[in-house]
Specification:
Elements (H helix, E strand, L loop, with lengths): L1 H14 L2 H11 L3 H6 L5 H4 L7 H22 L1 H26 L9 H14 L4 E4 L3 E4 H19 L2 H18 L5 H15 L4 E2 L2 E2 L13
Antiparallel strand pairs: 1-2, 3-4
Length: 222
């Protein structure tokens, strides 16, 4: 579903003339000017499905085919789509936010941030799982995650794509927070509710509340 939306919108953009392409980008692409100057906040979501490179579409399809079905089966469809929405929107917001702060108008487009987020989630959930990266390189899920993070960091620093790097970082951090048991807000909230419920419980014996103990009577005389 997610890949189909990106492929459909991106192919429409690729087949349009320059004027139509600009119109699509203005109304659906996430940029600092669209969000902060024109108030087009919906572009934080719609920009995820606009990929300008046909090669990028092919790579996205391959990576999503390798990792997304496993995570969707593990979490269930509803939780997976919630993960996709949160990581994608957080990444877009981080990218356009840094672009606005730096005074640039770099677009944040495509599912790359979400894809990196799925790899981070896979590396946490299946840390020891053996995978064949593109059918050639044997790695564990954790090794793959660290390798991709290193590649993204190198790519961003060399190219100096700071706004795009912020988008990738935002998506990956959001994925780590949602997936890791140590930092999950949902699990922390459940633990707090359980602790609060336990504080109100009392131990009962024989189906009735325990009566307070009376001071022991003196049975012996000196």
């Amino acid at each position: 579903m997610i890949l189909a939306l990106e492929v459909g919108l991106s192919l429409v953009w690729l087949m349009c003339d320059p004027a139509a392409r600009k119109g699509i980008e203005d109304w659906l692409g996430a940029t600092p000017s669209n969000v902060f100057e024109h108030g087009r906040v919906w572009t934080l979501l719609t920009g995820l499905f606009l990929e300008k490179s046909f090669l990028g579409l092919i790579l996205h399809g391959m990576v999503l085919w390798m990792f997304v079905p496993t995570l969707e089966r593990f979490w269930g469809t509803a939780r997976f789509y919630r993960f996709a929405a949160v990581t994608g929107i957080v990444g877009s917001a981080a990218g356009v936010g840094l672009g606005f702060a730096l005074g640039t108008n770099d677009p944040i487009l495509g599912l790359s941030g979400f894809i990196y987020a799925t790899i981070v989630a896979f590396g946490i959930v299946y840390a020891r799982q053996q995978v064949q990266f593109f059918g050639v390189l044997p790695l564990t899920g954790r090794q793959l995650m660290y390798g991709i993070i290193g590649f993204v960091l190198f790519f961003v620093v060399i190219q100096q794509f700071w706004a795009l790097g912020a988008a990738f970082a935002g998506s990956m951090i959001a994925a780590a927070v949602m997936t890791s048991k140590k930092f999950s807000p949902g699990l922390a909230w459940k633990r707090w509710r359980i602790a609060r419920a336990r504080a109100k419980l009392s131990v009962i014996e024989g189906g009735k509340a325990r009566e307070p103990k009376k001071p022991a009577e003196q049975k012996w005389l000196n």
